[in-house]
Amino acid sequence: MPSSSLLNQRHTVRAVLFDLDGTVTKDGQIPPSIYQALTRLNEAGLITLAVTGRPAGWCDLIARWWPVDGVIGENGAFCFRRDTDGQIQRDWIHPPTEIESDRLQILLENALAAVPGSAAAQDNAWRSCDIAFDFAEAVSGLTLEDARTAQAIFEEGGATAKISSIHVNAWFGSHSKQSTSRHVLTSVFGLDQRHLEQIVVFVGDSPNDETMFENFPLSYGVAGLKRFTDDMTHLPAHITEADEADGFLEVIEFILAGGSDAK
């Protein structure tokens, strides 16, 4: 059962933000129930934003075809969204640079050499601002300790590095999921900066969502987050009974049952 604060404040929720992998996926795919849930949120007048480490190429498609108001990708490097004319607007928080891309590639090669059996993420070809080390998507047999080894190599090279449920993502710059989410919610969607903590729900599943858990008190982790909690300082207010997409749907049913003042 969610905490009393969540029970009391679900009536005033204005926006639902969510991670992708391990949060709205189930066995590596997006079930139809997720699209239906997102449509219901939009029909209820709620802002919906995917907040992910996935690449720009994927985010362009999500912004075009998914029933969402936008997508923040590559851990806060940009926000892609459809405008009222159906055109895609690309708001770059940290525009890509060739020098940074070259430095990240060198650090990735160092991490791959240090962790036998690891691989460059298969979606790196569609990335603009960061790079990803694969320890659990297209490879098997690796552990969180292997992910931490790669993370340390990126950090020693001056990059920010975060562990997701499948990748270690690394980038240069001070942006994060949290900082870009705040910027987009206030500057694009007009929400009041002073009240975000009371009107924004976030749902995630891994350590790279920690800044969101820290800054948005109405946050949830799906059940799979439990395997990471010993390594995290900031946890969500509530962890769902179910995992992956089923856990996300648990949150959505809870929110919609409370109604919304947003229209």
Structural overview:
This protein is of the alpha/beta class and 263 residues long. The chain has two domains: 175 residues, Rossmann fold (3-Layer(aba) Sandwich), CATH 3.40.50.1000; 74 residues, Hypothetical Protein Ta0175, Chain: A, domain 2 (Alpha-Beta Complex). The protein contains nine helices and twelve strands. Helix 2 packs parallel to helix 9 and helix 4 packs across helix 5. The relative contact order is 0.19.
Specify Rg, calculated over alpha carbons.
Answer: 18 Å
What do we call the CATH topology of the largest domain?
Rossmann fold
Distance between the termini: 27 Å
| Helical stretch tally | 9
Order of helices and strands: HEHEHEEEHEEHEEHHEHEEH
CATH architectural label of the largest domain: 3-Layer(aba) Sandwich
The biggest sheet, with number of strands, parallel, antiparallel or mixed sense and barrel status, is: 8 strands, mixed
Helical amount: 25-40%
- What's the multimeric state? single chain
Find the structural class using helix and strand composition: alpha/beta
Query: Can you say what the CATH homologous superfamily of the largest domain is?
Result: HAD superfamily/HAD-like
Mean pLDDT: 94
Spans where pLDDT lies below 50 across 5 or more residues: none
Q: Which term fits the overall shape?
A: globular
- Beta-strand proportion: 15-25%
Q: Given this structure, which CATH class of the largest domain is correct?
A: Alpha Beta
